[in-house]
Amino acid sequence: MTAVQPQLPTEDAVEAGTTATTAVRGRSRVPWRFLAGRAAFYLFTLWAAVTINFVLPRMMKGDAVSQYLSRNRNVSPEAADALRSLLGLDTDKTLVQQYVDYWVLLLRGDLGVSLLHGLRPVTEVISQALPWTVGLVGFATVVSFAVGTVGGAVVGWRRGSRLDALIPVTTFLATIPYFWLGLLGIALFSVNLRWFPIGKAYGVGMRPEWSAEFVGQVIHHGTLPAVTIVIASLGGWMLGMRNMMLTVLDEDYVTVAQAKGLPNSRVLWRYAARNAVLPQIQSFALSIGFIVGGTIVMEMVFSYPGVGKLLLDATNAKDYALMQGVFLVITLSVLVANILADVAYAFLDPRTRQTEA
């Protein structure tokens, strides 16, 4: 007699939520080659970004000391040379020596001092401006992504209904230049209706502190710019998710799930939306990464103290140390956001884990 071979436990392909060729759950292996490749890629990207960060400011005409001397003519030549040496602009050193010194200081966590802010450490200057940008723009970006993705999924699921009217409306609002939308919001809600302040992060005479009054001031001042950011970016998230839903709903695993009699809510969120959201993850990672540096226009319109305004002032003053510090923060934020996007993408898409393994 022929021995009956025991069958391996199988998993329904629909339950896997993908169109994977096999649903057999094998022993998972750590994709060391993939991890090593991604680590090498991100390390090389970090090195290239830091190098460009070092070179670009020095290609600009003039420097921070020259700008400072043009405003303060009573500074002696010895003091000017001391300032150049302090800022890493010593003419006695070659560009290669300055590059090596920059890396040494960077590895120590020393980003230099800002001449624009009275020789204060760059880390201190950035640390005071960064929470304002991350708190406002980060919150608004997350809200717009969540609302746009969920709304796009519902609109795509109910295609042909009256909800389709939301797509052209939100897309039209997204085509309006952000600064113009912000100015309209200020004119309507600040000047005419007086519901919100015209600008700033908090009222005049207030000092930053953890108190109910100060937190209320911050929320009151930040509501209008946050709503403006959400309105300006909502259309892109909703349109992208709705188009992906229309593509995913024609897949076989969605049809099989519906044929099995699964609840519509489970088919929508467990199968259709889970796969349709994958391209949104990469876009969301880029949006999170550019939160730090992509807010110059918003902070100028609303006079909001943040990293964008800090970068603009540093560029005008040719403050190398401050410019390099802000660029470094932007670079790190983009890299970290992309790493998190890779992890989230592999978690949401089982096919990615199988391919990488």
TrEMBL record:
<dbReference type="InterPro" id="IPR000515">
    <property type="entry name" value="MetI-like"/>
</dbReference>
<dbReference type="GO" id="GO:0005886">
    <property type="term" value="C:plasma membrane"/>
</dbReference>
<feature type="transmembrane region" description="Helical">
    <location>
        <begin position="218"/>
        <end position="239"/>
    </location>
</feature>
<feature type="transmembrane region" description="Helical">
    <location>
        <begin position="129"/>
        <end position="157"/>
    </location>
</feature>
<keyword id="KW-0812">Transmembrane</keyword>
<keyword id="KW-0813">Transport</keyword>
<comment type="similarity">
    <text>Belongs to the binding-protein-dependent transport system permease family.</text>
</comment>
<feature type="transmembrane region" description="Helical">
    <location>
        <begin position="178"/>
        <end position="198"/>
    </location>
</feature>
<feature type="transmembrane region" description="Helical">
    <location>
        <begin position="35"/>
        <end position="56"/>
    </location>
</feature>
<dbReference type="Pfam" id="PF00528">
    <property type="entry name" value="BPD_transp_1"/>
</dbReference>
<keyword id="KW-1133">Transmembrane helix</keyword>
<protein>
    <submittedName>
        <fullName>Peptide ABC transporter permease</fullName>
    </submittedName>
</protein>
<feature type="transmembrane region" description="Helical">
    <location>
        <begin position="284"/>
        <end position="305"/>
    </location>
</feature>
<feature type="domain" description="ABC transmembrane type-1">
    <location>
        <begin position="130"/>
        <end position="341"/>
    </location>
</feature>
<dbReference type="InterPro" id="IPR035906">
    <property type="entry name" value="MetI-like_sf"/>
</dbReference>
<dbReference type="GO" id="GO:0055085">
    <property type="term" value="P:transmembrane transport"/>
</dbReference>
<keyword id="KW-0472">Membrane</keyword>
<feature type="transmembrane region" description="Helical">
    <location>
        <begin position="325"/>
        <end position="348"/>
    </location>
</feature>
